[in-house]
Amino acid sequence: KWSESRFEEIVKETSNFIKKVGFNPKTVPFVPISGWNGDNMIEVSANCPWYKGWTKETKTGSYKGKTLLEAIDAIEPPVRPVEKPLRLPLQDVYKIGGIGTVPVGRVETGAIKPGMVVTFAPAGVTTEVKSVEMHHEQLTEGLPGDNVGFNVKNVSVKEIRRGNVAGDSKNDPPKAAESFNAQVIVLNHPGQIGAGYAPVLDCHTAHIACKFATLVEKIDRRTGKVMEASPKFVKSGDAA
Known about the structure:
Elements: H1 4-20, E1 54-58, E2 61-65, H2 68-73, E3 88-96, E4 100-106, E5 117-121, E6 125-134, E7 137-139, E8 147-152, E9 165-168, E10 193-194, E11 200-203, E12 206-209, E13 217-219, E14 226-229, E15 233-234
C-alpha cells in the first residue's frame, strides 16, 4: 500500500514551490501514479484507498477526477495567438537530399504558409518558403502550437541555425536586440547577484550568454509591486 503521509508531504512541498514562482496551487491537480504499473493513469488504483481524487479550480469552474487521463482531459486549451505577427524559433536546420534546406520549429504566434517570404533573425537572411509540412503531410498553413518543417529557397544550412527566429518579412519581422528589460526570479543561487553578472539565457531555442547591466528594481514576485528601486544586489528568493 502507498503512503498517504508521503503523498501529502509531496503535495505540500510542490504547492509551496509553485506558489513561489507565482502560480496558484488550487489550479493544479495532484495525482499519485505509477507509470511503471499503470496505477491511476487510466484506471483508479487499489494501492491508495485513502486517495479521494484530485480537484482543481480555474476561471471557468471547478473540476474533479481520479486519474491522470481525467486530469489531462481537464486541461483548458490555450488561446492560440494567430492574429499576431509570425514568430517561429528554429529547433534545428536539416539538409535533405533532393529537397534542400529544411528548418524545423514550433510556430509560437502567427501563421506560416507556402509562398511567404520569411526573414530569419538575427542572421538577417530573407527567403521564400517553398512548402510547409507536419508529420510528413503538406500543410496550407502552420498555426501556433504546430511543430513544422519548411523548405526554403537558396539558403544553405550554414546561414541559419538553432535559436534563430523566423518571421514574415512583410509583417513586423523579428529583429536582434542589443538590450532588453527582463523580470527575473532568483530561485536558488549561492551568494549575491549584482550588475555585471553574466548568466546564460535560454529563450525558446536560443542559448546565449548575456550580462545584467543594471538592476532596475526589486519587486514582490507575487504582486509585482516595487519594493526597492536600484538595488545593489539580489539573492535567492528575490524577484527583480
